[in-house]
Each structure stands twice: as structure tokens, then as C-alpha cells.
């Protein structure tokens, strides 16, 4: 309070909301409803991106969306459905958004939830480098028409910043071990650099145990015994794949949240995609998006209290057997009904 009795002005919390394609249009509004219950002060600003946006406007990520995302600082993205064949002028909006916003560290936790498919005791965090690797989109078809080439880029700068964030986070949240995942024996120039730089950063954190695995061995252990892991630090492509595998132990992709952090930026999104097979039926699971909002509250807005309210409400609903159809078919709830049950518990 100022001495003249007026309230000091506090910058409003703003969220840029981009539902995207498919079930993004169902799960994002559900998660926004939940957010408005626990943090009604957050201003909601909507924007477009995705395949449908490309068909409408000729771009999958309009400049106005990027500007809004930058000015809000916090973004909630649903899902997108990029075609699996080349389309002139099209690029993946989510990959571009992560890179343009320099949201460089994608945090993908898998923790046990009270659902039938979850593996008791699973509790791990994948920290995935989010701005380079094979995902930079430098791809071409050679003149022979039968050779596709993609460039993989790994830099010291991007590796160092994601590694440092992973170790700092490990210290802050009380994790004990970081496993660096790579394939440096086959790719010594790119993965070898990632390994070297990550190990250099690890040396600054002697309180955290560090080990390393080749990505194929890491996949084997993810299936055989995920309790081997605490924090996994890895590159973009391997992180994408390993975190989906981990999500199976958490009870399924419908429950797997994520947030990507950068300097002054956070981009929350469920790990799952646009699920075109179930889009529009009102049966999608909004849990992953709700838990992604909780991650935004905890890691970006420093609102651990509000994050915990969402997480506890989700736990209690699942514990009472309130499931969407991806979790259990008998008596499954639709997206809106499930969302109401969560809101009732907040
Ligand atoms: N919510 C994350 C998401 O949309 N995943 C699917 C994905 O990565 N898609 C990339 C694309 O279709 O451009």
C-alpha cells in the first residue's frame, strides 16, 4: 500500500490460451474452468494455431498469436495435428512456438495416480531439451526424390541451459539422481557434445548423483523397471519418446502433463496429441491439461497452493473411480461431467 492509501499496481497474471486442433478444443476449456476456480485473477486471452488455423488463415502460427504469447508470458496449448506428409508453407506450430519463445526445458513428470493402469511407486521426471535436435525442421528431399535428409543440431548453449535447469530443479524439489540419456557411441559429434556439456554441468552439483544411459538401454529400463529413474535429462527426440513411454506407467497419456520453461516464459500443454479419432465426441480426458495448468501455477506463477488444490481434486476424483473412457470403460464420464466433478472437489 502506498502512503497515500492507494494500492500499489501489480502486473496482472495473463494466460494466452491456444486450444489448437482436435481434442485441444475440449480439454483446454475444461482446464481453464478449473484454473478460474483456483486463480480467478488470471486474465484469459485466446488465440489460434494449428492445422485448422492453417486451412483458414494460410499459417499454422499467426504472428498475432506469437505476439499475444510473448506479451502474456504464460501459454496454455492444447494439441495439434500436423500432416505426416509435406505441405507447402506448413510447419508444426507447437514445435515453432517452443523454439520461438525459447521455452527450452520441457518438464514431463510421471507420478503414480489412483487408476488401474498406473504402476505403483512410479515417480520420475523427464527434462527434455525443447528447441533443437532433429526438431529444428531442416529437412529436404534430395533431387533423386528417394532420399530424405534431416539435420540434427545440438549446441553447447542449449545443452548447458537445459542441463542447468534440470539440476537446479532436482536440488529445489529434492530429487536425488539425474540420468543423462544419449547415443554418443553412434553420434559422437552431436550426442557426444550433449553428453560432455551435461556432465560438465553435473560437476557443479555434487549433491545430485549422475549416471548416463544410451537411449536404447534407457527405453529397455523404462519398460522393465521405471523405478530406476528419478530425473532423466535428454535431447528433444529421445525425450519426446521416453516421456510417452513413461506416461503409460502413469496410467496413460490422458493423465500426462507438461510445462516448458524459458526465461520469463512458460508453455503448459498435455503430452498427448489431438486424438482425431475421438475429437468432437465429448469423451476426451482433460486431466493432463488440468495438471499442466497446475504445473504452470507451481513453476511459473509460484502458486504452489493453487497447484496443490488442482492436484488433490484430481487425485480424489480418480480415487473415487471417477474416470473418463480412456481410463476405464464401465460407467465412464464425459469431458464436461468429469470437469464438474473436479470443480466440485476444489
Ligand atoms: N500437446 C502436445 C501435442 O500436440 N503433441 C502432438 C505433437 O507433438 N504434435 C506435433 C505436431 O503435430 O505438429
What does this structure look like?
The N terminus is likely disordered. A hairpin with a 2-residue loop joins strand 11 and strand 12. This protein has 2 domains: 202 residues, Isopropylmalate Dehydrogenase (3-Layer(aba) Sandwich); 132 residues, 3-Layer(aba) Sandwich (Isopropylmalate Dehydrogenase). The strands form 2 sheets. Strands 2-1-3-12-11-4-5-10-8-9 form a 10-stranded mixed beta sheet, with helices on both faces. With 346 residues, the protein is of the alpha/beta class. Helix 1 runs parallel beside helix 11, helix 5 packs across helix 6 and helix 10 crosses helix 11. The chain has 11 helices and 12 strands. It starts with 13 loop residues before the first strand and ends with a helix. The relative contact order is 0.16. Glycylglycylglycine (GGG) binds next to helix 4.
